[in-house]
Every structure is written in C-alpha cells, then in structure tokens.
Design a protein that fits this description.
This protein is mostly beta strands. It has 4 helices and 34 strands. Mean pLDDT is 93; it is low at 15-27.
Length: 506
C-alpha cells in the first residue's frame, strides 16, 4: 500500500487548473433511480455475501508514474456539476500509485447516470502511457474546484482517503472513511463507487460505497466550503463481515517529523517540519486535553479512554512562518481537522498511533475513535459526525492553551547537567491567565507515569501577555516512554487545558 503522501503527490501531478466552460454531456448510459436509503440497503446486502476482491488493475497502469502524470491534465471544459457558485468537479486518472478504477455516477434529483472514463476528457501526450491504455484506463478519484476553477478545496482518491485544503487553501493531513487495525496488520477497504450530486442548499453531496474483506459501508458526505474552512457532515452505515481487533472510526492521518521540542531528530535545515503538532481532545467530562505529537524512537500506541466524547482532532496550532521557513509547501498554512461526534458514541477511546519517520514523505501519525465493545461479525453501526477543516481553534474560548513546549538537558543553567533526566518546559497562553502573578495562588498540577518529576516550577513569562511557563526535570524509570499530565490551577479550578506530554524512555 503506497503511503498517503505518495497518493497526494499523484493527485497533485494529475491536477488540471486552466479556466474553461462546462461540458454539458455527462456521460453514456441510462439513468437509474438512486437514493441514500438505496445505498444503505446495498451495503447491507453485500455484507451478507462473501467478499469479492476487485479485478487486477488495467494493464499498463504501472507505467503512469509521477512524471507521466505531470503531462496529463483534465480538461476544464469537461468539468461536471458546475453551477450555483461552484467550480464543479474534475477527475483524476488511474496511475501507478492509485491503480484501481472507481465507478462514478452523477446524480440529478433522484436519478443517477454513469460517468464513464474517456481519454478525450484529458489533455495528454499521444505517445504517453495513459494514452496507450485508451478506454481501458479509468478514474482514480475526483476533486471539487473553487468558483473560479483555479484551485480545488476537496479531493477523494486512493482507498478511502480524502482531504481538504481548509481555510488557508493548503493541503496537509488527510481523513479516511475507516481504519482497520491501524499500525498493525492493517486492512485498507476501498471506496469503489461514488455518486456525486447537489443538495437543496447547493452543498456538494458525495455518496460512496465502501468494500473490504472485514466490512462494507455506505457513506454520505455533505460538503460545504465556507470562509472559516470546509465542513463535512458525514453519515456512515457500517456492516461488519468478520471480527475486527481495532476499528478506527473517523480516522485522521498526518505527518510529524520534528518541532522545536524535537530538534535532535532534525537532519534538515528548516526549524520545524510537520503537518500537525498536537492531538486535541474534548472529552465527555468536559476536559480539554492537548497531546503534543512525537516522532518516537519506536512506534507508540496510546489510548485515551472516554465516554460520549465531545470532539477530537489533529491540530496545526503553530501558525508562525518563521518557525518553519518553508516558502514552498507552507507548513504554517496546513489545516487542522476537528471531529465532532453527533449523538452518543458511548464507551471507547481516542487512539493515537505514532510511527517513526526520518523525513517528511511518510505519514506517521494516526488518530481515531475506537469503541470499547468488541467488534464482531454481523454487527451494524450507524454513525454521524462532522469534520471541520479549519485554521483556528475549534472550541470556544476557555482555559489557556498549550502554545509551546521544549525538551532539553535537565538541571539549572550554568550548573552541572542532571544525568538521566530531561528538562520539560510547557508554555500556556490565554485570557484565563490575565493579570495573574507569582503571588496569585497559581499552582502546577503534575502527575507522571513511567518516571518521576522534580524541580517543578510555574511562573509568568516576563514581557509576554497572559503567558505562563511550567518547568520540570523528568527522570524515566526505564525504557518505556514517560507520560506527563500537566496543568495550572488556582484554588483548585483549572486555568489551562491539560498537557499530556510524552518523553522517550532511557
């Protein structure tokens, strides 16, 4: 399975951006009745039948490499679903990274018409590998264009991956329809068919059929582009074919190589390189938890138990260009992605998988919700949630936020280093700290598992408004990572969100 970053590179290479006009003809084939209830019934029916693997990809698709894709453009005049202030939808061809064709249907009212692959939809070299495939090629996915037709704001391509450029028109992390045993013997079910239409309010409707050995699913995405970002309201109807060890609901996939706390992992000249810098959780008890991301020495699998979660997401909180110095891919503009469950998701956990990476081309971060009850063959899940692709914070103003953290040599500056320990520094900032000084009764609340913390101190940062610093020396008890839970309180009440920092073991 190619990395998500490779899939995104393939989508970028296949992008066609020139302006143009709508091609009225939507494709060949007779229209058929279609509705969301019909799709859910189809997924349920398929789950009762043995899984049938898709046919092998068309011959010659392996030759459609990244370089070959750079010479292929979807014609702007062939844009579909244009109107109502929308730039419409354009399509990606299959390629070496995304070799499996998907079936496309265009929906008008309650009728759907197949939209077939045709080489004339693309400008391509006559002697290129895609042209050589002729009508044997196919679509790998599609993207939604802005009103001017100059850039896209939403794309589906490869397995069940999809992504949005968010509020700042810059792609970064991705979402998936589902994750099955992520970080282990992972299975990647596919969106095999798409139905694309418009809602009554002009929203882009995308219905998708998911197929895999362990489950089938029907998905409805109601997609809206707003000034504050992109909103996706998602309904999912899942039918389990066989037992699943870890079912990942609303999975998010990102990249974290290093930040200011991980300078020792950097071999690149840029100060920081990451699509996301933290996992934010708003749990069922109302706590706000911030977990800074790590590029660990060895893979880590962390579980944050909860009941009826209010939300979770992978955030890019640091928006300072000077912290990245990248004027090519603009890490400070990467979207944050916030999941809002609808209804009661019951008992379960937000899971964070962190894998080791030595560069920025591999996505090594996965976050998702997993139910506490075992997932057994024959079970059925109906889920609803919202995805918010944003640039700011997803929650209303409240406790002060974790805005920076660092790790370094333990001990006091100018004094001998404390052997075997790590200095951990956490900065909080927000209106809840306004006007508070050293004599205001602010106290650190720190607990540590897998080690111990000494020399704990908290104080306002000189010259910085509404900013406090919490410092400690942490000594690991062994090779396992040390988990730190740290916040600031006053008279027992929380002033800050809880920082769930992690330090490598000895």
């Amino acid at each position: 399975m190619p990395s998500r970053r490779t899939l995104l590179a393939a989508m970028a290479a296949a992008a066609a951006l020139p302006p143009g006009h709508l091609l009225a003809a939507a494709g060949k084939g007779e229209a058929q009745p279609f509705s969301w209830p019909k799709l859910k019934a189809l997924a349920a029916q398929m789950a009762r039948q043995p899984y049938r693997a898709p046919p092998p990809p068309p011959a010659g698709v392996a030759a459609v490499t990244y370089d070959a894709l750079n010479s292929v453009q979807y014609k702007a005049t062939a844009t579909q679903m244009k109107g109502g202030g929308s730039g419409g939808v354009r399509f990606f061809p299959i390629n070496h990274f995304q070799p499996q064709p998907v079936e496309i249907w265009l929906v008008d009212g309650n009728m759907a018409r197949p939209f077939h692959y045709d080489p004339t939809l693309f400008d391509m070299p006559a002697d290129g590998p895609l042209a050589a495939m002729g009508t044997n090629a196919g679509f790998s996915g599609f993207r939604a264009m802005n009103a001017a037709g100059t850039s896209d704001w939403l794309a589906f391509a490869g397995a069940s991956y999809f992504r949005s450029s968010g509020a700042l028109d810059q792609y970064g992390l991705s979402a998936r329809g589902i994750a099955i045993n992520p970080g282990g013997q992972e299975e990647f079910p596919d969106f095999t068919k798409f139905w694309i239409g418009r809602g009554d309010d002009g929203a882009l409707l995308v219905d998708a059929l998911m197929e895999g050995p362990s489950l089938t699913g029907a998905y409805r995405f109601t997609n809206r582009k707003t000034d504050a970002g992109v909103i996706q309201d998602i309904e999912a109807s899942l039918h389990i074919r066989k037992d699943i060890d870890h079912l990942g609901i609303a999975p998010l996939t990102s990249m974290f190589w290093y930040d200011q706390a991980e300078r020792g992992r950097a071999t690149d000249w840029r100060p920081e390189v990451h699509d996301s810098d933290g996992l934010l959780i708003h749990n069922g008890a109302g706590e706000r938890l911030w977990r800074p991301l790590n590029n660990p020495k060895a893979p880590t699998f962390d579980s944050f138990a909860d009941k009826a979660p209010k939300g979770f997401g992978l955030m890019q909180r640091d928006r300072n260009h000077d912290h990245y110095q990248d004027d090519g891919v603009f890490y400070e503009k990467r979207p944050s992605l916030w999941v809002e469950p609808k209804g009661d998701w019951g008992q379960g956990s937000v899971m964070l998988v962190q894998l080791v990476t030595t560069d920025e081309t591999n996505d090594n971060i996965v976050a998702f919700w997993t139910p506490a009850a075992p997932v057994k063959a024959g079970m059925h899940y109906d889920l609803s949630y919202r995805l918010n692709w944003i640039a700011g914070e997803p929650l209303p103003e409240g406790p002060a936020l974790v805005v920076d953290w660092w790790k370094g040599a333990a001990g006091r500056p100018g004094q001998p280093v404390v052997a075997g320990a790590v200095k951990v520094v956490i900065d909080y900032e927000g209106p809840s700290l306004s006007g508070l000084g050293r004599s205001s009764g602010v106290t650190p609340d720190v607990t540590v598992s897998g080690g111990k913390a000494n020399a704990i101190a908290a104080y306002p940062v000189v010259g910085q408004q509404d900013r406090w610093r919490l410092m400690m020396d942490v000594t690991p008890a062994g090779k396992a990572p040390v988990n730190i839970r740290a916040a600031l309180r006053r008279s027992g009440a929380p002033l800050t969100e809880v920082c769930l920092a992690q330090v490598d073991g000895a």
